[in-house]
Fold each of these.
Amino acid sequence: MPGPVKTEAVVLRSIRYGEADRILHLYTLHRGRIGAIAKGVRRARSRFGGRLEPFFRLRIELHEGRGELLTVTGADTIDGHAGLRGDARSLDAAARACDAVARLFETTEPHPAVFNLLCRKLAMLNEDPGCATRANALAFRMKLLLAAGLAPQLGSCARCGEGEHLVGFSGAAGGVVCGACEAGAFALEEPAHAFMTASLGSPLTEVPPAEDRVLGQVERAISATLEHHAHVRLGPAAARLPQPLAQSTA
């Protein structure tokens, strides 16, 4: 029904529109992903200030009319995540997390677990730049797969049910496969299998460490699952940004 809407929201993306407006992509607690227009927000005296920028968590008021876009009528900041904006890796990780949520959960169907997961991810990046790792990003994507009902089968062969000798992964089959069923699959080493299992059962704050080779296999498995079952292709989980130069002790 058209009318006022009040909910919590995370700003996924903000796009300039016209002379002074912005189009917002929001992920909300009660309405899933929605689009909204913030009129006059780019004017110097706008009552919204800078709080409609990406990664802000808000209590937002909107008006729903007959068009596809809702209109922002009020917004209060819950968390602006100012800390992550001062670190290139954290900023990039936040953008990739928001993009993954936007692509996987495109409808207005509410997913409170996804909203809360995204809020935890942004809060972690805000508090600790050390969380902006490829391992953490992949663990986040594994949890999104679970929320979307796409979590791969990891406990036994997805083709025959064998519980041992799980040596490969097949996106088409929907999970790990044994040696007898590995035709068409790619290799998935035991550490990659263990990382995927741990990611589903552990908080984001307890992501296990893993070598880059292992994480490459995990990322390939996630990509194969998404492309085959959701027809979604995400970009790399993490950017390969240059490491900070070590300070000289001379």
Amino acid sequence: MSDVLTLTAPRTDVPVRRTAPSLPALVGLEMRKSLSTRSGKALAVAGMLMAPLATAAIGAASTERLPVADGPLGIMGLLTAYLLISLGVLSTAGEWSHRTVQTTFLLVPHRGRVLAAKVAAVAQLGAAVAAVSTALTAGALAVVESGMSWDGAVRAMGAAVVGGAAFAVIGAGVGAALANTPAALTGLYLLLLGAMSVLSTFKPDVADRIDPANAVLHFAHGTETTQSVVNLAGWLAVTTVAGWTLTHRRAVQ
């Protein structure tokens, strides 16, 4: 009696379980990471409270009454958006500055997925912080200003939310491109607050078309909508593509 060994081909119809985390899971992780540090928490709290506190202080000290709410809401929304740039920069450049990028890319060895998750995370965080800030700002305006017209207030609040999300993503893109937190923050603020101000003095038409701050203000006032969409879309595209390209070319050390 002899034993016969029979070999069978391995089954190919067994589904393979995906081991990499899904993009929504990565986005949630990146949101928690951004808020897990003291600097991230401080930026989020400051972003929520700075504009309403400034509104209350200015309103209490001013003797002139504001006729409509959309202008102040747009300006204070822009103030919050400028602060949220730092939140975006820290989410990407902070990883390189603190050498945590090695662990991040070891756990998820797909740089494009990581950057996409960071962009989505800071966009949601920026929108959420801006939404809370503009709601509190509207409340402060209602307290310190009497007889103000609220026509266009909802539009201005929406512009503030869009601006917060957009500026956070711009910060993330530049942070990913430069991989250096001080350089990214200094360069962005010099460009947006310095160079754009100089350009608006000598070439106001050009500055109006390319300054993202003007796009937010136009949204708040309901003017130049198409130009503002193109303006912000251009900034988002250039910064995210630059961040994606340079992140893929950079060696992790």
